[in-house]
C-alpha cells in the first residue's frame, strides 16, 4: 500500500512540474473576450499575459515625470497584459543616448518626441517602422491636417503617430491697449487681427507711451519661432517650400514685412534680447506685446506663480495669433507623438503598435493627452469626442481656438540648425541698417547652401 501511495505521489509531482514548465501565452487579449464553460462567472477575467516593450520619452509635459507616466502605463498593462519599461530622456543628451543605442543595436521599441527627430532624423535614416497601416480614412479625417503632414516623410512613410499639438503665438497687454485706445483693433473672440489692425495698434501705443512697444529680438535663436511667425504672417510670406527641400525666406512678402517693421518707431530690432529676455521685459510691463508666447506662458507668465494671464503689475495678458493680411494666421507649433524602432522583432513591433493605438486612438486618449498638458492632435478617438478635453480649465479650453491655425511644420527642412543661425544673424543686420532685400537674399542663400552641403 505504501509503495502504491508513493507511486501516485510521484506521478502528481511530475504532472505539476510539467504544468509549471509550460510556456506563457504571449498573445495580447482579444477585444471581446468570452467566458468558457469552466470559468466561474463571479471571477473577473484577467488580461492575457503579454510581452514587455521599452519606451524612451523626452520631457513632453508630464510625460517626463515618472509618477505620471507610471500611472498611465500601469493602466495600459492592466488592460493589455503588455508591460512597459520607461526611460526618461533630457534634451541636453537625449539624442546622444538614442544614437548610441542605435549603434549598439539596443534601441528602444518606442520613442516619444516630434517630427524633427522622428521623421527627419531617425525615420529618414531607416531606423523607424512605417506606421502607414495604422491610419484609415476615419483617422486621417480626425487628425489635424498639419500634424498628419508633419508626421509623414516625403517618401510617403509615416514615422510618427501624433498624440498632441500646440501652437505658438504672441501676447498683448490688454490694459495698455485700452489705455492707448488700441483695443478696438483686436478680435478678442477669435484672438486674431489683421496686419492693418496691428500697424494701427502699434502707432496708437507708441503715440501714447512714447517708447517702443514691441521688439524683434535677435540675440540668438532662443524663441526665434516668434520672429519668424511675425515676419511670415504680416504679408503671407513663407519660410520653406511645401516639400521642405529649400528655404524661401527671401520671399518678397517677407522683405515687405521686414521693411514695414523697420519703419515703425513702436517696433525695435533688439540684439540684446532673445525670446526669454523679451518675455521678461513684457512681463515687467515695459513692452506692451510679446512675440514669444505659448500656453505655458499664458498659464504661468514668466514662471513667476503670480497669477495666470497677469503681468507683474497685475495687468491682463491676452494671447493672440500673429497679425495676418487676411486675419487668419499660420502658426508655428509643436507636434509630439510616438515612433517605433525597427529592431527586427515583429512581436515587439505589434505590441508597440498596441501601445500607440491605446494612447492615441481609444477611450484612453483623454488621459494620454492630459498627461502631456497640450492639445489633442485629433478631434475624436474611436467615438470619444476630444473637443471638450479641457472643459475643466478655462485658459486651456479657450486657447484651443488657435489650434485650427497650425501652419506648416517647416522645422523638418534639411539644414534646420544652420538656418536658425542665419535667420537671427540676418535680423541683426537689418536692425543695424543694412539693405533689407540684399541682406535677406544673402542669408537665405547661406541657409540653402548649408542644407545642400
Task: List its salient traits.
453 residues, three-stranded antiparallel sheet, globular, disordered N terminus
Mean pLDDT: 90
**Low-pLDDT regions:** 1-47
Overall structural class, as computed from helix and strand content, comes to: alpha/beta
The coarse overall form would be globular
Helix proportion: 40-55%
User: Major sheet, described briefly?
Assistant: 6 strands, mixed
If you had to describe this structure to a student in words, what would you say it looks like?
This protein is of the alpha/beta class and 453 residues long. Helix content is 41%, strand content 13%. It contains 17 helices and 13 strands. The strands form four sheets. Strands 2-1-3-10-4-11 form a six-stranded mixed β-sheet, with helices on both faces. It has a three-stranded antiparallel β-sheet with strand order 8-5-9. A two-stranded parallel sheet has the order 6-7. Helix 2 links the parallel strand 1 (52-57) and strand 2 (83-88). Residues 1-47 have low confidence and may be disordered.
Amino acid at each position: 500500500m505504501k509503495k502504491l501511495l508513493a507511486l501516485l505521489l510521484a506521478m502528481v509531482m511530475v504532472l505539476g512540474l510539467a504544468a509549471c514548465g509550460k510556456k506563457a501565452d504571449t498573445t495580447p487579449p482579444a477585444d471581446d473576450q468570452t467566458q468558457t464553460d469552466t470559468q466561474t462567472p463571479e471571477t473577473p477575467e484577467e488580461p492575457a499575459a503579454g510581452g514587455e516593450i521599452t519606451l524612451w520619452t523626452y520631457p513632453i509635459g508630464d510625460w517626463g515625470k515618472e509618477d505620471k507616466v507610471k500611472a498611465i502605463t500601469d493602466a495600459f498593462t492592466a488592460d493589455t497584459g503588455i508591460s512597459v519599461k520607461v526611460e526618461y530622456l533630457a534634451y541636453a543628451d537625449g539624442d546622444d543616448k538614442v544614437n548610441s543605442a542605435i549603434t549598439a543595436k539596443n534601441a528602444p521599441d518606442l520613442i516619444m518626441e516630434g517630427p524633427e527627430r522622428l521623421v527627419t532624423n531617425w525615420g529618414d535614416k531607416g531606423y523607424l517602422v512605417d506606421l502607414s497601416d495604422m491610419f484609415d480614412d476615419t483617422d486621417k479625417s480626425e487628425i489635424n491636417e498639419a500634424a498628419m503632414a508633419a508626421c509623414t516623410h516625403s517618401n510617403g512613410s509615416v514615422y510618427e503617430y501624433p498624440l498632441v499639438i500646440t501652437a505658438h503665438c504672441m501676447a498683448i497687454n490688454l490694459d495698455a491697449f485700452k489705455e492707448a485706445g488700441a483695443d478696438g483693433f483686436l478680435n478678442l473672440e477669435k484672438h486674431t487681427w489683421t496686419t492693418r489692425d496691428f500697424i494701427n495698434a502699434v502707432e496708437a501705443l507708441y503715440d501714447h507711451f512714447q517708447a517702443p512697444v514691441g521688439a524683434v529680438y535677435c540675440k540668438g535663436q532662443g524663441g526665434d519661432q516668434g520672429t519668424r511667425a511675425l515676419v511670415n504672417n504680416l504679408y503671407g510670406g513663407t519660410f520653406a517650400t511645401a516639400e521642405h527641400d529649400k528655404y524661401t525666406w527671401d520671399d518678397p512678402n517677407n522683405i515687405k514685412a521686414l521693411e514695414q517693421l523697420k519703419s515703425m518707431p513702436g517696433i525695435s530690432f533688439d540684439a540684446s534680447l532673445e525670446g526669454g529676455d523679451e518675455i521678461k521685459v513684457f512681463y515687467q510691463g515695459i513692452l506692451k506685446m510679446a512675440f514669444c508666447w505659448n500656453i505655458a506662458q499664458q498659464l504661468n507668465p514668466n514662471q513667476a506663480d503670480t497669477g495666470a494671464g497677469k503681468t507683474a503689475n497685475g495687468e491682463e495678458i491676452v494671447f493672440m495669433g500673429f497679425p495676418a493680411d487676411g486675419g487668419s494666421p499660420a502658426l508655428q507649433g509643436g507636434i509630439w507623438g510616438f515612433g517605433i524602432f525597427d529592431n527586427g522583432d515583429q512581436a515587439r513591433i505589434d505590441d508597440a503598435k498596441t501601445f500607440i493605438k491605446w494612447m492615441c486612438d481609444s477611450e484612453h486618449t483623454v488621459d494620454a493627452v492630459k498627461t502631456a498638458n497640450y492639445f489633442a492632435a485629433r478631434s475624436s478617438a474611436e467615438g470619444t469626442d476630444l473637443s471638450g478635453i479641457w472643459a475643466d480649465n478655462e485658459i486651456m479650453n479657450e486657447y484651443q481656438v488657435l489650434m485650427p491655425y497650425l501652419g506648416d511644420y517647416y522645422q523638418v527642412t534639411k539644414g534646420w540648425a544652420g538656418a536658425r543661425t542665419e535667420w537671427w544673424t540676418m535680423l541683426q543686420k537689418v536692425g543695424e541698417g543694412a539693405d533689407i532685400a540684399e541682406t535677406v537674399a544673402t542669408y537665405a542663400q547661406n541657409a540653402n547652401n548649408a542644407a545642400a552641403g
